[in-house]
Amino acid sequence: MSSKSKGGGDTVARRWTLLLCLGSFVTGLLFTNRMWTVPEAKDIIRANKAKEHREELVVEGYYSKIMDQKEEARKILGEEGSTTEDDLQMLNKAISNLEMELAAAKMAQESILKGSPIPQELKVIKTRRHKYFMVIGINTAFNSRKRRDSVRDTWMPQGEKRKKLEEEKGIVIRFVIGHGNTRHESTTQDMLLILAVPLLVEFWIDQLKLRTKSMNHVEGYLELSAKTKTYFATAFSLWDAEFYVKVDDDVHVNIATLGNTLARHRLKPRVYIGCMKCGPVLARKGVRYYEPEHWKFGGDGNKYFRHATGQLYAISNELAAYISINQHILHKYVNEDVSLGSWFIGLDVEHIDDRKLCCGTLPDCEWKAQAGNTCVASFDWSCSGICDSVDRIKEVHQRCGENESTIWNAVF
Hints:
By secondary structure, the chain is of the alpha/beta class. It has two domains: about 60-125, no CATH class; about 130-275 and about 305-410, Spore Coat Polysaccharide Biosynthesis Protein SpsA, Chain A, CATH 3.90.550.10. The protein contains 15 helices and eleven strands. It has helices spanning about 1-30, 40-45, 50-55, 60-75, 85-115, 120-125, 145-150, 160-170, 225-240, 255-265, 315-325, 335-345, 365-370, 390-400, 405-410; strands at about 130-140, 170-175, 190-195, 200-205, 210, 240-250, 250-255, 270-275, 305-315, 350-355, 375-380. Strand 4 (about 200-205) and strand 5 form a beta hairpin. Helix 5 (about 85-115) crosses helix 6 and helix 5 packs parallel to helix 11 (about 315-325). The chain is elongated and about 120 Å long.
């Protein structure tokens, strides 16, 4: 009897042990997240809805932009002419565009999260407008009226032809000028008056006046780097073009030949086109093209990095966007062509050296035209432009210029 009672006690003890273990296990679950209810996906989305809304700056339309670029490329190449290399170039171009817009979106997002207004240059990237093929900015000074008139009388279309060039060919041409009295030219239709950064815009028929709140761009050789930076940022903010060109007002240009030259590179991301050079760094004060920051380029006798000569060069849309976004931190050297080249040194940019952009004047450009190799630009190296251009550019145009019908028959 006593034996049965002992066995029954062991059974009860085992049962209590099991119950205690089970109770401890259940209690442990209550104090962990294993028994917590997992929020549904829709609750998470609802909680983050406000945050996601602030982050959606330029994401919309990306897919359609890629499709538009692909369709445009196929129109140029033709379905039968499309190759794997062409497709890769087209894809690289699309990726480059998206990367630039994503970078701008990230900067805009940071501004919003900090409670700051979105910078104007970032709004430009988000809100794109009609697509132009190229913008040509003719660098000039406010006391160079005769040079501007000589350009208007030769290679630059005027009146309805200039308007037709923009509407049908997507080519915008403006003189780029700094601060000065230009009221005597207020009836013309080809002026871009720059006063530093474009916060206020006043239109003439051919003049575009840009002003900052606190400072004006003053003309002068030592200010050319600032003017060049401002020109590209300004042109990018006003015209959504594939290429942006800078040319001096004492250089002859064949517009159709320039367009055909640039069109061959339109599927490449980040291109920098010009006559590339690497001249000596001049460290002695008083000489022409003296470089005050010569010590940055090493010892005496060193040369600059490869960059396009300043008479005429072109950059793609992505590089103009880069200048626009980073214009406040881009360093300016005394020589504007060196400055532009330095801005692209650390970037994945393709430098294209094309000697058609720097032909000599007569008889060089005439011989080439007769041989069917028409020059894009002609000037005299000894004068860094056409010597006595006001008097000589008309002859250069007559003997080296393309036929007037060439531009209207061209398909870019």
